[in-house]
Amino acid sequence: PMEKLPEGIDLYFYEGHWYPSMFIHCIIPFQQQFKAQDTDLILVSFPKSGTTWLKALAFAIANLNNYPLNESPLLATNPHVLVPFLSDAFYGKNPFLKLEDFPSPRILATHVPHSALPTSIKDSDCRVVYLCRNPLDQFISFSHFACKLSNRPFDPSFIEESFDMFCRGVSAYGPFWDHVLEYWKASRERPGKVLFLKYEDMKEDPISHLKVLAKFMGLPFSVEEESQGVIEEVLKLCSFDNLKDLEVNKNEKNRMGHPYSVFFRKGEVGDWANYLTPSMVERMNKLMEEKFAGSGLDFKFS
Ligand code: A3P
Q1: Which residue ranges have their beta carbon within 6 Å of ligand 1?
Q2: Which of 3, 90, 91, 131 is geometrically suited to a Cys-Cys bond with 29, CB 3.0 to 4.6 A?
Q3: Which positions fall inside the Sulfotransferase domain (predicted)?
């Protein structure tokens, strides 16, 4: 089946999840052809949950010994170029990304749900970092993003229609709750291999979460690095305010002609309160209570 989001994005339902039309063709080749390496780090997120931030942080940690932070490639290159989406390698006959040319240890990204990951990822020793965000902020962030890309006004009628679809599970890579719960379960079953992160927690306590991420990557900060303030410097380099104002992220476009600035909007928790009606919030709260009941998982909304 197919559904059309109000901003014109076609979504196709395949094995329990909704995929945007431009990526549906990548799924099967990705599942069948991707060969994970034990040293791979795969960053997975539900779209608009802070993928860009996570990519920047993981890249900075992995390259601490390769470049001084004030000469980091992050200063001149968008994080999505440094840490590409795996779909780029399975996009038609002449993909943008040639995985064989990509140096190991590789950091790659995807939005694909856990149940749809290639068995090669699940069977290998590679590590997966998962990032999600409270559904109200995710919904608002995605809606802004999609409207900007399709030049559609972000108005109440649009919000109403797409919110209803979101609550019915129809959103890019949705249903939201299935995506989150699958990775939550995987992180509990294989804690050394799947790290589960939430945007709100990272915003609240970035230092602790950066340490957790570095340790999970097998690259913990040394006592010396900690005392020299390296953690704070990495966080500053990758901060919303710093990245958004860099020339590359402010004025350049990706190969599809989309400005990198669309990845940097507000970068806050709780912006949903500026757009959603009390009845929408109530509907979402009820839905989340029902879907996440007994899972031990909850979200912060402010
Ligand atoms: P908002 O639209 O709420 O501002 P993704 O990277 O998964 O596409 O998610 C985009 C969201 O993350 C946007 O949220 C964006 O502003 C925010 N974001 C981008 N870079 C960030 C950073 N360095 N720190 C915190 N949030 C960031």
Answers
A1: 45, 47-53, 137, 141, 144, 238-240, 243, 263-267, 271
A2: 90
A3: 38-296
